[in-house]
């Protein structure tokens, strides 16, 4: 069962990927609900205002998922989410969980989000190296997710856009299978539809242990 969902709205500068929590009830319901909530975002007038609106929509989805879990007797109905909002010469990144956003700029790939996992917290505290974290048995244990807690905290950052930037939003089904170097190589050539297909095919060929979703967004030279 595919528990991922995505949103592709170039007409209003909005993209998202959500990964329903495997092992928990109704992960596919959770990812679909949060993406449908974000789809209600109106055409942005100011980037900061759209960020606050998106945060409110995620918070409302969080409340709905908790209410559904309480009503059905399920422990958690949860999902991760990453969001890219673009307007003019800037963009905003929002995220909860371990789905990721990367940026390819001048042929260099950079991860722009920080995973909300127990292992990432240990890395931040200096208890583990990044290399140790990759193979740690608790690497997939989330410390934050939509639907997991009554109060949701959404991380966000603002980024300037440069002509030629390419952004990748993806669920962890991609990053579990492909190295950063391989992702950078695949992102570096081709148009977005072909790149997305290549990313998914390579992740499946490498093991495909989880659902794989990728959204690739190009910002043209100005």
List keywords for this structure.
five-stranded antiparallel β-sheet, 7 helices, 222 residues
Question: What can you tell me about this protein's structure?
Answer:
With 222 residues, the protein is of the alpha+beta class. It has one domain: Phosphatase 2c, domain 1, CATH 3.60.40.10. The protein is 34% helix and 25% strand. The chain is built from seven helices and nine strands; from the N terminus they run E-E-H-H-E-E-E-E-H-H-E-E-H-H-H-E. It has helices at 27-38, 47-72, 118-124, 130-134, 172-175, 180-187, 192-205, and strands at residues 4-9, 14-20, 79-87, 90-96, 100-105, 108-111, 155-160, 166-170, 214-218. The strands form two sheets. It has a five-stranded antiparallel sheet, covered by helices on one side. Strands 6-5-8-9 form a four-stranded antiparallel sheet. Strand 3 (79-87) and strand 4 (90-96) form a beta hairpin. Helix 1 runs antiparallel to helix 2. The radius of gyration is 17 Å and the shape is globular.
